[in-house]
Amino acid sequence: WMLAYQQSAVCNKGIGEEESDQLLLARLDTGFGCVMTQVIMAAMLVTTAAVTSEGGGPAQRIGTVQDLFVVFVQVMGGEFAARLLLTFAMIGACMVAAIVQTLCAAWTLEQAL
């Protein structure tokens, strides 16, 4: 979705080969955003896997937000910090989902017209 959005933004701004400096900045912005999202996702996966499989036994299953909260408490070292981080993580995820849904609907409508 990020690449499709960036492509639409570049087209809407009318950035072409003659504005190579702006095109380079748009490409760097997209590349940096893609790399950062993947680094954060990988860090979360590795941290969660490490915490849930402590002790060498079978990993505990994470099926609810409460299960995830237990993992965050172990990682953050306290309930307040875990609750704060999980709150911001959920708000951020909801904001991204809302943006993606809105952009996908707008992009589809634009393409249909």
Look at the structure and give the mean pLDDT.
81
Helices and strands, in order, run as: HHHH
**Total number of strands:** 0
Radius of gyration: 19 Å
Strand-pairing-aware structural class: mainly alpha
Uncertain runs with pLDDT below 50, 5 residues or more? none
Question: What fraction of residues sit in β-strands?
Answer: under 5%
Describe the structure.
By secondary structure, the chain is an all-alpha fold. The protein is built from four helices and no strands. The longest helix has 34 residues, at 79-112. The radius of gyration is 19 Å and the shape is elongated.
Task: Tell me the layout of helices and strands.
Blueprint: H1 2-13, H2 20-52, H3 65-76, H4 79-112
Helix pairs in contact: 1-2, 2-3, 3-4
